[in-house]
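User: Here's a chain of 743 residues. Predict its fold as tokens.
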Amino acid sequence: MNTARLRDQVAASDPGLLRLAAGLRTVGAIALTLAVLGLLGASVPHLVAGAIAAMVATFAIREKQRAPQAVTLALGLPVALASLSLGALLSSRVLAGDLFFVALIFCAVYGRRFGDRGTALGLIGFQVYFVSLFVGATVSGLPELYGVLGVAFGCSAAARFLLVPETPAGLLERLREAFRARLAQLVSAQLQLLDAGPEEIDEALEDVREGTARLHETALMIQGRLEEGTSDAAAARLVQRRIADAEIAAERLGLLLLTARSAERADTLTLHLPGAPAPRAGRMPGRDEAMARVRRDLEALRLLVLRPAAARSGTALSQVRNRLLGYREEENLPPAPPAVQDVFRGVGETARAVLGLRIALDGPQDESDDSPATARSREELDAEDAVIDAHEEDGETQEELTGLRRPTTRAAVQVAVGSSLAIVGGEFLSSQRWYWAVLTCWIVFLNTASTGEILVKGYRRLLGTVLGVLAGIVLAGAVGQHTWTAFALVLVLVFAMFYTAPLSYTLMSFFVTAALGLLYTLLHTYSLSVLVLRVEETALGAACGVIAAAFVLPVRTDRRTNELLVTVLERLEEVTEAAVDQLSGGTPVELLDQARDLDQALADLRAATQPLIHPITPLRARRDTARYVVALLETCAYHARSLAATAELLPTHPSIAADPRLRRAGRRIGDNIAAIAAHVADEQSTARVETGPSIASLLETEVPGTPRFGRVTDRVLRHVQRLDETLVGLARPLDVPVAAPKR
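Assistant: Prediction complete.
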């Protein structure tokens, strides 16, 4: 049991074990390189060069399939040899060497437009040139260095394909397990929210928010691996559908619990920002008894998520599953206040999503202990599976950007200018180690697109470097001249660098700087002044990067976020209109892919707003506005995903029928989204957001005696209503005019 729990925790903390595999693969390549070179009697500089080259050859490769990885690695070796040769040839020609370095940097960044392979080859070329400067490569020493590079690339291949192999199918399987583990963690957080007292409610709500975001992150990771990791398009579609169902059901269950706890409607988890008053438990007749049963059912739901194999044959778990799925039938709901009954319905829908996920991932289940409610759920799932088919994606024609309008060209020009400044300034600081400033300037431009992002990344790198220098002083003093002890510590630091890189750029910078302190010790060039110079060069490189980003073809943070905000709104409009049209009786279209495009656009916007919401920003009003806008958009995305998921069920679900009245509501929502997007793109736009009672009036047309849930006239219209209200709320912080309701 303890082993299983530990495995679940590891899977949840590192989805797909991507960070662990990256760290082990890189450390394995370096260790193997050092072992081979050590047996060959290589000198310490050659050991250092081989270690860095093996690290670069390993982390630069980003393709998902093994064959393209092998091709890129094979092409990377001649690129590395050429870069090393030019570095050695130009080492004594300062001006020519500097000009070539700038040209190499431009080409390396421009190569990103050619995809993963272009990015990898550019990165290898730049980093190996840096290695030639770091170890002081000379023309006479090139033959031996060629051998070092050959060993490093060979060991990198061995680590990638033999020591720590990774297949798309295996990675997807680990991501699925991570999704299960994170879903169980979210249910646990919801349990804590249910039980939290007045002093614990803020922390419990934050845990639910974080758990929901982590589950969503894993769903996006699975989406990006489905094509390579599944045997056919139909299987990919099935997994995609079941992952989306489970994600939406779990998020909705959290909202229902929040509503039941506070006795007030909760439309979103994200709007309960830190510092806002948290919901307090209200007193309702029969609430305590019903909540005790909810608690028991949430614990049972968590068990179903975590123990799929036992649930196939365990009689006790089958009975639990039958009870939870029974809540999808109105007659099986326990006596409770309406808000708490909604929670039971949510538990039933989540159990149904877990059942569908288990069938999709684990195959057919034992049906001998099924209750009538469970049998009906299986029939619904089977009917859905029968109509799932691969849909050819429509090729979208996009405007082809040319010249300096192309992001890769603009970034290449910016990095070239920034690097030129860094070379000049770096040589004033040190004629021997000026390249540290260039390296920092290069790095702060990686995976950034605006001046604000570059400023924040430069600040984080400088902070990590300062802390790493302090650690390097301690480690260098402890290691002394013990070569293999130093290399062992370098391996530990490299693993920590790759394991923490996706979590904290500051931590990554800390570990790489500490490792460099040890490498300086091995090269007999360590001193306190060298480490201080490292900080100075880092600060200079970051400053040059910010200057280049601010004055050379600048992309302001506001402009970047506005462009991404318009993209999010366009994706939101596409998903909503398509879902509402299908729910109104229109032609079925591909909805889940559109919903994932919306999720990805929102993730890009969330990343781009980091400079605006960073704690060091002095513009607190703008920071609060950015947080509020992103929270509202996350609410819109949740309701749009729910509409898309329900529309996907329309052809097979017996209790969902098309309702033509939705077209009127969908038309107004689409117009409002377009109005907000037009105003964000052009502040002079005269478009206005329309309000009115039409959607609310649809909610009042329910026929007495109709079940509250499972029908378009109830659940779907509620999502539409919430989406409409949220869009009106979104218009206000964006200063979009809101028209008065028509009478």
